[in-house]
Amino acid sequence: MSKADWREGLSGEERDRAIESILDDALPACEAPRARMRGNFAALSLRALFFGIEDCAILAGIITLAGAAPLAFMAEPGDAALAVFMLAPLFFAALQGLVAWKDRESGTIAWRAACRMTVLEFHAARMLVFGAIAILLTVPLAVAAWIASERMVSFWWMLSLAAASLATFGALSLLIFRLSVAGRMYGAAQAVVISLMPIVTWAFAGMLLAMLPAAAAALLAVPAVVFVAVAAAATILFVRLIADVCTMPFAEYA
């Protein structure tokens, strides 16, 4: 029996079942977006995550140390608290901006679009790791501010302020990124603009606080538990936005 005779001998329903069986065997099983995201994150090593951006991480660390240097000359608790508020997100912001700039100059976003992990998932994984490193750096920052204020303010209060500042900045950065993706702002040049928007916003807020005489006193009057609650809420929002970005149906950034 020829192939033509075999095809003609099949009913429409049998032919559909045969095609479906062939496709099921030939094509990989569809994965749920969240399951695929978890698998990709588990398989992604720190070496791959930081490949090509080691210099950005070192430079961000130098910028953070330079920014924290004025703490040695601050004796007033209010000034130290304002400095912690501004400096806590500095490493995260500097690293994000430097990496976005390097991606734009080197054109690496284009080739990452061909990888199994989408560019949005890769960006989200980087933000998670950058945020985790920045959280660790809030501890020495809080210690430095605590010593600079001559221990007039609790160390745990300084640490809670630093955590709240960093978590809020991280959530703001990712929210802006999420809205830009929803608005179809793709490309390396847009990535640089997006990374600068929260930095400019944070710098403007810090300048306003520094110019207001009562800002430092008001900041010192806030209990540590409030900062802890803000940090927890912002962290939950950050993680939720990470999941939303990674599972968007049009997760194509380049």
TrEMBL record:
List the transmembrane segments: 44-68, 80-101, 122-148, 154-177, 189-212, 218-239
| Annotated keywords | Membrane, Transmembrane, Transmembrane helix
Q: Which domain of life is it from?
A: Bacteria
Which protein is depicted? Answer: ABC-2 type transporter domain-containing protein
What organism, scientifically named, is this protein from?
A: Collinsella tanakaei YIT 12063
